[in-house]
Specification:
Elements: H1 15-24, E1 26-29, E2 33-39, E3 46-50, H2 58-75, E4 83-89, H3 98-112, H4 122-129
Parallel strand pairs: 3-4
Antiparallel strand pairs: 1-2, 2-4
Helix pairs in contact: 2-3
């Protein structure tokens, strides 16, 4: 697997893990997404995705989850390691295309202070300012 692949060990799977992040983690939100962040002792990040049926039928929900995973996958090298992250979709997220969702998530990463300091490079900075 390459540097950009997503392994099973990078996913939150247990209900108890989700509840722990929701209750003890801090959250950052914008109009489209809520990001919950909680430090873990694993030395790697794990992600969980929460897309409710209010978002739409299965096709729309799965598309949102695919976009969440892809944005995380392409930008995971820019993140400080050792966090559990949960992406919670809000209703308007179905209207986002990939660049807008990436911009939104990168802003939330920055607000949650989980971006590596050198990750504020020119390409990333341009996305955050746009």
């Amino acid at each position: 697997m390459g540097k950009y692949s997503l392994k099973k060990s990078e996913h939150l799977r247990k209900n108890s893990d989700f509840r722990r992040v929701y209750s003890k983690g801090k959250s950052c939100a914008d109009h489209f997404i809520v990001l919950f962040v909680l430090p873990n002792d694993l030395g790697r990040n794990r992600i969980g995705l929460s897309v409710s049926k209010k978002i739409g039928k299965a096709v729309k929900r799965n598309r949102v989850k695919r976009l969440f995973r892809e944005v995380y996958r392409l930008n995971k090298d820019k993140l400080i390691q050792g966090f559990d992250l949960i992406f919670l979709a809000r209703k308007d997220v179905v209207n986002l295309d990939f660049p807008k969702m990436e911009r939104s998530i990168l802003r939330l990463y920055k607000r949650a202070k989980i971006l590596k300091p050198q990750a504020a490079g020119s390409r990333l900075q341009n996305k955050l300012e746009a």
